[in-house]
Write a structure and sequence with these properties.
Elements (H helix, E strand, L loop, with lengths): L1 H12 L3 H20 L10 E4 L13 H4 L11 H11 L5 E3 L12 H10 L3 E6 L6 H10 L3 E5 L5 H7 L5 H17 L6 E8 L7 H11 L3 E6 L21 E3 L5 E3 L9 H4 E4 L4 E3 L12 E2 L5 H5 L2 H12 L5 H4 L10
Parallel strand pairs: 1-2, 1-9, 2-3, 3-4, 4-5, 5-6
Antiparallel strand pairs: 7-8, 9-10, 10-11
The chain binds iron/sulfur cluster (SF4).
Length: 340
């Protein structure tokens, strides 16, 4: 609890009057659009996901990086493209997630990227499988000023852990976690706020209490229980947990499965956030993993031009008209994430 409060205060301390003014414009234009049914947008995104790389060392079964199933190319975010975009958005951006698909620590300049945003007082976060948090990288991570580090730990025994994190080693995750905690203490840093993220699937749902104890024992600041997205859910899946509150899907009387959310025709994400792939394609949200809906490329245009483009506006309008007609939106469960 104390960790969450200090993380919240840290986030607030980083905001400036210009960022708050931009946020007010974004929030009001979102509510106005819901009232008048028009996709009008004011301001720039408050939150951005930037993909350092699509490469990954693991082979998780519901992840296109893990399955090597992308139709888009695999690569590493060029530093000049990254810096150019951060320079453009630094005045208004409140939250930068250096993660989309892939394992961010595989990018050779990852700590540098974080430091670049930190120096501009942007709150930074990332999500990792923690297999590369060596002593050296853990020190560099703390020194970079990273504000939040989400570590995926989906089991408390090697057997359970690698049933989803295929190719992964639980001992590496624990070692990486200890290294971060060691360097936070050594450098007397309250950041990064350390979160264990536990993706609840059928093979690990019996370990929920154990992961909470493990987090406490290690000195992790927070534990989050996350529901899993399943691609082919209609016929059921061995990954869907028995505990309904940890599932995004429910079984219908005819035996088929459906998404639990009510599929309302609006989407806050389309107003307040955006996602950029490693090669500069702007896509609407993190559900568009293969960049099916490209709003534009930062190799050709500025972010503002893309954000205010006809393509983006038409996509917002299409979501408002009928989410169920857009493939990525059908399996989107905004609002049904479960945090423990
Ligand atoms: S999948 Fe559709 S509804 Fe869900 S966040 Fe993305 S754009 Fe919004």
């Amino acid at each position: 609890m104390a960790g969450r409060v200090s993380d919240g205060l840290n986030f607030l301390r980083k905001q400036s009057p210009r960022r708050l003014w931009n946020a007010a414009g974004v929030v009001s234009s979102y509510y106005l659009s819901r009232l008048n049914g028009k996709p009008g947008q004011s301001g720039l995104p408050l939150s951005l996901s930037f993909e350092p790389t699509t490469s990954c060392n693991l082979r998780c079964p519901e992840c296109p990086s893990g399955l090597r199933s992308f139709t888009r190319p695999t690569g590493m975010l060029p530093m000049d493209l990254y810096k150019k975009t951060i320079d453009e958005l630094q005045g208004t951006l409140m939250y930068l997630l250096l993660y989309f698909q892939g394992e961010p620590y595989l990018h050779p300049n990852f700590p540098e990227m974080v430091a670049y945003a930190s120096e501009r007082n942007i709150y930074t976060a990332t999500s990792t499988n923690a297999h590369f948090l060596s002593n050296d990288l853990a020190r560099k991570t703390v020194e970079s000023g990273l504000d939040r580090l989400i570590i995926s730990i989906d089991g408390t025994t090697q057997e359970t852990y690698h049933s989803y994190r295929v190719g992964g080693k639980l001992e590496k995750v624990l070692e990486g976690t200890r290294n971060i905690i060691y360097w936070k203490k050594k450098l007397q840093s309250s950041t990064p706020h350390l979160i264990f993220q536990f993706l609840v699937v059928k093979p690990n749902e019996h370990q929920i209490e154990e992961v909470k104890s493990l987090a406490k024992e290690l000195g992790v600041d927070e534990i989050r229980l996350k529901t899993a997205q399943i691609y082919d859910y209609e016929g059921g899946s061995p990954l869907i947990p028995d505990q309904q509150k940890y599932s995004r899907y429910r079984r219908l009387p005819n035996g088929k499965w459906t998404v639990k959310n009510s599929m309302e025709n609006h989407c806050w994400k389309m107003w307040h956030s955006s996602v950029i792939t490693w090669d500069g394609r702007v896509v609407p949200c993190c559900f568009d993993k293969d960049a099916t809906h490209q709003m534009g490329s930062l190799q050709e245009k500025s972010f503002r031009e893309i954000w205010q483009s006809k393509t983006y506006t038409n996509f917002r309008a299409a979501v408002m008209k009928g989410r169920s007609t857009i493939e990525i939106c059908k399996n989107c469960t905004e609002g049904t994430k479960v945090w423990g």
